Amino acid sequence: MWKAAVFVFLLLNMEKQVNAAVDKKSSRTEEHMKTEEAEANDTNPKSGTVSPAFLGNLLVVPMDGSHWIGIKAMAQEMGRRGHGVTVVMPEITMRMGPGKHYNTVTYPLPYDKDYVDSLLASHKDVMKKSAKNFLEKISSHFSQINKSTGLIHTTAESLLFNDSLISHLAQQRFDAVLTDPVVPTGSLIARQLGIPTINLLRGIPCTLDTQSSGCPSPPSYVPRFFTGYTDKMSFKERAVNTLVALLEPLLCRLLFPW
Question: How would you class 58 by CB atoms within 10 Å of its CB: exposed for 0-12, middle for 13-18, buried for 19 or more?
Fold first, then answer.
């Protein structure tokens, strides 16, 4: 009789030990799962486990006088966020100028400020509405474009052929070049330095921006240069706009013979 009682006692004791072990293991598993869930949901990384944010060294080569892109504002913001920003500009600049959050490097030019002011004044006169016919407007626009391209060409040569400045930029170990691709000066410098470019593209002549990006630009709805039309055109204006679109390849050959 006492043997049966001892046997029952041992069975009960073993059952308690097993249950305790199971409960302990279950508690550890649940605690481990809660810990993993907390770590997965924790958005604040522990100190010393994550590398600091990347701070790059950016070279900015703007197209002087470009009104399409706010490169100056972008350079200011990148510098304010802690990046090293260096803007290369001509000593006579139209729109850039010095900034609070970026460094500037200037290069000399073969023309003075009076020449730039006269060019801007003539450009303003061409853009005004006048009683000239279509051919006269085209002629005046061509003359103004030739003056502007001459200025741009001279400015680009002054930078690209400045060996001491290019050598100085190569020593700065920039990570990328921010540029306006309407003039390939920034892209050429990036190629020479062996670093990538960040191109801001809008309003490129000959609709190269829409062609390169694959955006639709039907002449029935999108007004062409020199027409002065808006997106709301009459049938006659749409016909003229379509004719100008068909002539664009010829105009581009005349404007950009190189």
Answer: buried
Name 115's Cβ contacts closer than 8 Å, sequence gap at least 6.
none
DSSP for 187-198 reads HHHHHHHT--EE
- All CATH 3.40.50.2000 domain ranges of the chain, comma separated, are 55-111+151-202
3-state DSSP assignment of residue 60:
strand
Using CA atoms, how far apart are residues 70 and 234, in angstroms rounded to an integer? 34
Contact between residue 178 and residue 75 where contact means Cβ atoms under 8 Å apart: yes
* Predicted pLDDT of residue 44: 41
Residue 255 to residue 145: CA distance in whole angstroms? 8
Residue 258 has pLDDT above 70, yes or no: no
Question: Residue 64's CB: how many other CB atoms inside 10 A?
Answer: 21
Model pLDDT for residues 176-228, shown as the tens digit of each residue: 999 887 788 888 999 999 999 888 766 666 776 677 667 788 888 888 877 88
Rounded to an integer, the average pLDDT of 138-153 is 81
Q: Domain 55-111+151-202 falls in which CATH fold?
A: Rossmann fold (3.40.50)
pTM: 0.59
**What is residue 6's three-state secondary structure?**
helix
Helices (H), 161-234: 163-171, 185-193, 208-213
